[in-house]
Design a protein that fits this description.
The model is unreliable at 299-308 (pLDDT under 50). Helix content is 79%, strand content 1%. The chain has helices at 3-7, 11-37, 47-60, 68-81, 84-113, 118-121, 128-140, 142-155, 157-165, 169-183, 191-219, 224-237, 245-262, 266-288, 291-298, 306-330, 332-335; strands spanning 61-62, 65-66. Strands 1-2 form a two-stranded antiparallel sheet. The longest helix has 30 residues, at 84-113. By secondary structure, the chain is mostly helical. It contains 17 helices and two strands.
Length: 337
């Protein structure tokens, strides 16, 4: 079967094939790894780590909020108490699934469905101001995440989550702590490999699949704004976390418009990469800082004024998106397809 056969498929057929492929590849790769290694990916966390994760979660949740510094310090302690070989085995298995399910699948389907393959996704807009705006936007996007958690409470999505999945802040925190124990650096795996595994690979793979492929396919059947919203919903859904669903959805929308207005998949990749890297960076800063430095971080100061910082973040995000939009309008006659 030639590539022309796939490229001549109808858009709905391509969309359905992509979604089904995401699910099937994930299941197949997980099964193959289980057969080869004898390890069930759903049962990677050993009982001792589960007990420690539960105990830590109970300590760091105060007034319905998570004390991040105490959480990361506790995660570091558990990592030091767990054999690196056990942690790394789980890390590489999980990264293999992500590598194949997102990056590998994205590259294959883009090559199969688009006439010019990857070149059709990477439109050559290299405006320097857009790269700077991407970095500024990425640094402030986490503010959306913290506000999305509060919005969950206002909309009572936390109660819906508890009812549908028997999940709440405590269970989510236990799960999050467990995942971070296995993916954060340890004595047998440094920051570079961890960065590649949890920051770089997901940023490239998920952008290729959701923005580069699905968003473009949806835009062939509806207007671009609907296409961005639909792919953002799918992007939020595949993270299987209702607590952060609104954050992933808003992030998906922002990344979608960056790709549409910037006409270069590199821009959402940069934002996605930095957003992922901030988790690793925060872990490094908090777990290596002295007690005095941590007191300075949590002490009083302009950067700890939540209200001021919040307005600054939203202002920066708005200005960054404005730069993308103005650049798009100015060059619409050149870059619009």
């Amino acid at each position: 079967m030639s590539l022309d056969t796939f490229r001549n498929w109808s858009t709905p057929k391509k969309i359905i094939s992509t979604v089904i492929s995401m699910l099937l590849v994930n299941v197949i790769v997980s099964l193959l790894l289980m057969l080869v290694t004898g390890i069930n990916l759903d049962e990677l966390m050993n009982p001792e780590v589960k007990i420690k994760s539960s105990a830590l979660a109970g300590k760091v949740i105060i007034n319905n909020d998570v004390e991040v510094i105490a959480e990361l310090k506790g995660i570091q302690s558990i990592i030091k108490e767990t054999p690196p070989g056990e942690l790394n085995k789980a890390f590489y298995l999980l990264i293999t699934v992500n590598l194949v399910s997102y990056l590998g699948l994205g590259l294959v389907l883009i090559h199969a469905f688009f006439k010019e393959g990857f070149k059709e996704v990477l439109v050559h807009n290299k405006t320097p101001a857009l790269f700077i705006a991407s970095v500024l936007l990425a640094y402030h996007i986490p503010k959306l995440g913290s506000d999305a958690l509060q919005l969950n409470e206002y909309l009572k999505l936390d109660l819906l989550q508890n009812w549908l999945f028997n999940s709440d802040l405590l269970s989510d925190t236990i799960k999050s702590i467990g995942e971070m124990i296995y993916i954060m650096p340890n004595d047998g795996r440094g920051y570079l490999i961890t960065f590649i595994g949890i920051c770089l690979i997901p940023a490239i793979g998920e952008e290729l699949l959701f923005r580069g492929l699905l968003m473009r396919l949806f835009s062939e059947r509806t207007n671009i704004h609907n296409a961005i919203a639909i792919q953002a919903l799918l992007f939020a859904a595949v993270h299987f976390n209702l607590t952060n669903f609104l954050y992933y959805f808003v992030l998906g929308v922002v990344l979608g418009y960056l790709y549409y207005w910037g006409r270069n998949i590199a821009f959402p990749m940069i934002v996605h990469l930095i957003n992922n890297s901030l988790v690793l960076f925060n872990y490094f800063v908090i777990t290596t800082a002295s007690k005095e430095s941590l007191n300075n971080i949590t002490g009083e100061g302009v950067f700890n004024d939540a209200e001021v910082y919040g307005w600054m973040s939203y202002l920066t995000i708005g200005l960054s998106l404005g730069i993308f939009y103005m650049n798009f309008n100015r060059n619409r006659h050149i870059i619009e397809e």
